[in-house]
Amino acid sequence: MAHETFTKESATTPEGYFQVEAAGLRWLALAGPGSAQVVRVRSVEEGRIELDNVPNSRPSKASAEAFGHALARTHAAGADAFGQGPDGWDGDGFIGVQAMTLRPEDTWGVFFAEQRILPYAQAAHALGNLNDAGMRTIERIAARLADGVFDDGSAPSRIHGDLWAGNVLWSPKGVVLIDPAAHGGHGLTDLAMLSLFGAPFIDVILDAYAESARLTEGWRGLIGLHQLHPLLVHAVTHSAAYGTQAVRLAERFL
């Protein structure tokens, strides 16, 4: 018989690690009718979180299409500002095992440059996983971002923030999201991470999302810009190969 709940616990996680995860899950779950399904939090305390167990099912085109539409509705629920953390949480957060700032900004470009690009590039550079020339390239794209070159006037979206395939569970009732780094951001950031690491029926998801969100022509060409953050995160935690990939992507937008 399947367990009704799933518990994650660790004595070594930073303070607030599971609490901000719980706040993010609850915030995403409050996105309103038709939004993406999110695993339910049963309880949370320092070093421990208990969640509903999500039964496995085979991915399907129908579930993928439904998820694309639902994710667009989640994003449309919005946030108070770019960089704003989930309701009920006042501090910074985490992406995987790394710290991630959650500080409100008026514009997406400044937020993305200062909180999602430069901190991880600097950390990767310090580790030797991003060379001097690469660091200069990242600084140039960060400057363009901060100058508003890529701002499109869209309001902050309520994004998952760590939407790779491992955080997308396929259940008999459709896709269920887990393990967010939720905050106010740009909707393409979630699509970019999902595209970077792959997912079943990814094209179906993207097409359904684009239809519901009414994305304007050319949005696919910006996916690489939004992939800079997860690539630089991986340049810190994994290897220099991710730093090299980030630099090559950044060069496309200079």
Number of strands: 10
Q: Give the helix tally.
A: 9
Summed up, the domain count is 1
Largest sheet: 3 strands, antiparallel
Low-confidence stretches: none
CA-based gyration radius = 18 Å
The CATH architecture term is Alpha-Beta Complex
| Structural class by secondary-structure content | alpha+beta
CATH homologous superfamily label: Aminoglycoside phosphotransferase (APH), C-terminal lobe
Termini separation (Å)? Answer: 55 Å
Q: Residue share in helices? A: 40-55%
Largest beta sheet: strand ordering: 1-4-3
Mean pLDDT: 95
Q: How do the helices and strands follow one another from N- to C-terminus?
A: EHEEEHEEHHEEEEHHHHH
- Overall body shape: globular
InterPro entries: Fructo-/Ketosamine-3-kinase, Kinase-like_dom_sf
Family: Belongs to the fructosamine kinase family.
Pfam families: Fructosamin_kin
GO molecular function: kinase activity
Topology:
Elements: E1 5-9, H1 17-29, E2 37-38, E3 41-45, E4 48-52, H2 61-76, E5 93-95, E6 98-100, H3 108-127, H4 132-146, E7 157-159, E8 168-171, E9 174-177, E10 183-185, H5 187-197, H6 202-213, H7 223-226, H8 228-237, H9 240-251
Parallel strand pairs: 2-9
Antiparallel strand pairs: 1-4, 3-4, 5-6, 7-10, 8-9
Helix pairs in contact: 2-6, 3-4, 3-8, 4-9, 8-9
